[in-house]
């Protein structure tokens, strides 16, 4: 830790800070709601051959990378022969 950071932390603790953990910050709100995740699950349940590009066209407010991440979190690990392979059979 450099000297400037040490002085900053010393000043913070003198001013009443009690923890070294980061303070909670307000960030940009997520556009990915439970409702949208459910719609993505339903779309994949209806047609497991949907590509990320097709899902992106269906959900233009969500980036392709976030769609891919969401699909992976749902248990769809990869696209094999143009059908999403499920790690967990929860959305079949």
From TrEMBL:
Compartment list: Nucleus
GO cellular component annotations of the record: nucleus
Bilayer-spanning residue ranges: none
InterPro entries: Homeodomain-like_sf, Transposase-MT_Hybrid
Main location group: nucleus
Superkingdom, taxonomy of origin: Eukaryota
Protein name: GVQW3 protein
Organism, scientific name: Pseudoatta argentina
């Amino acid at each position: 830790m450099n000297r400037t950071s040490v002085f900053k932390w010393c000043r913070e603790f003198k001013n009443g800070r009690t923890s070294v953990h980061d303070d909670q910050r307000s960030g940009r709100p997520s556009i990915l709601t439970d409702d949208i995740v459910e719609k993505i699950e339903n779309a994949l349940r209806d047609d497991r051959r949907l590509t990320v590009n097709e899902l992106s066209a269906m959900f233009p407010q969500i980036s392709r990378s976030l769609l891919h991440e969401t699909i992976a979190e749902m248990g769809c690990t990869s696209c094999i022969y143009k059908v999403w392979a499920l790690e967990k059979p929860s959305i079949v």
